[in-house]
Give the backbone structure.
Amino acid sequence: MFNRPRLKAAFMRFACSISIICFAVFAAAPGADGKLKSTKVPRYDAAVAKAVAFIQGNVAKIDERSKTLAAYALLKAGVEVNDPVVAEGIKVAHERAEAGAYSGYDHIYLAGIDAMLLADSGDPEAYLPGLQNIARYVESVQRADGAWSDGAQQPPDVSMSQYGVLALWAAKRVGCDVSAQAFDRAATFFLGSRNGDRGWGYRPGTTRGLGGGKTTHNMALAGAGSVAVCRTMLHGPKGYKAKATADPKKFGVLAKAETEDPKVGKTGSVYPEYNAANSAGNLDNAVDGGISWNNTRPYVASVHKLYFYYCLERASALADMREGWYTTYGDVLLKLQTAEGSFSTNTGPIVGTSFAILYFVRSTKQILDKQYSGGVMMGGRDASELFGDKKKKKDIGPLDELLAAMENADLDSLDVNTDDLAEKIQFGSKEDLIGQIGLLKKLLKHPDATNRQAAFFALGRTGDFSLIPQMLQGLRDPNVGVNSEALQALRYISRKPTGFGLKVDPLDGPKTSSEAQKVVRANAWRTRAYRTWHTWYASVRPYQELDGLDALELLAPSGGQR
């Protein structure tokens, strides 16, 4: 007989959900109905729809250099990942990242866009090795002064440095190793390269490029947005108040914090143990200066006019600007759209249209909303996916009826009672569970983490060795409660009660006040657990299970992951 209190505790874990900061640029997952994300401004919705249709209808015009940007724009607009343009862009970014094939003038631009696309792909864990390659490369070519450029002998480039920061931000938010010093050095460059008017020129210290060294609207916002990213990584985003957790654990996961810590500083940082050389106040001052320069001077469109809008959207979102700018500038942008739906710039209509889409869908705001407002935390996964979400339940009868209801439930109004669920699975006979294996396996892919957790628990109690490949996939589930239950199931099936020394709680470890660090810790646990148990299974699997292992290996990222 199994321990009933432990079971109930296991199934109540999801009742304690929190907002975890993982700092990632995550794409908004498109709805099941295939509709694009709404801008909440009807005229902009219409413009985005036309722009998306233009890109989708002009695939032949998308050159190799523009494929990942076009894919990223469509993804952020809500287009499905299996769309030909999106799928091709992800494929190109993945191959380039895996090979580390970044060179030439565009090396940092491509690295930045590839990183954002892969991080927002909906399954960033599949691309972690490539994302780590990008991060490693971008850090390796960062100049001693903290900037990036098109060559070791070339002067610093504010625009390119912006994409260096974006690449590292994208990689870090999905769990890659990125040093705090890289962001701090970048911040030092931006703070030290401003003109006397508090803005930035294209190549600081020179007269090269557009503007001849003078501040331009494009560079003022590129610089302000980049500093704001560094501020977010080193100190937390402007206006964010970190949560103090009085009871750090409840049922194995974090309890929701009830009080606010007035100190932003380290408590909001991705690097809580790192003492940044650049203070939050100095970084905020630089961001405000760049935005103020833009706001107090009439915008004069350059040959890169669409680039301006994407820089504006990012700087405005990260700087926590007051509303009003979005429609003021958006209505001007709207006038640049052609009848066929494109927006042209000197680099062509595909690039221009992509930048316009990213402005209208408020790409960066999507990220911040999901990171700090209880929305999607990681790779399109929300807080309920990480820790579950307690809902009002209604009682359901026998086990087969209960499982059927779980499979078909309208998750907005119906789900199972967690106490009843634990009791029914605990006291149901092994034969009853075996008879429900088909349905339970379907529940492993259920969108509700509660149901997945129940399915892993029940399948583990069947003792069926052939289910181990499915249990291994549970170790990589985005919900830590599901991870824990999958580990327990593996222990039961394999008759290895110690589970190779792996802790049951993925978040177990030294106390930390950083929510982002908790995400990193959970990802590290998932990687170790998956590798450990996968290696064991490879050594003991029966001959007839070879196909299952081969399929599992195809699902696993090559080269390992964090």
Summary: The chain has two domains: 4-13+389-555, 18-386. The longest strand covers residues 376-378.
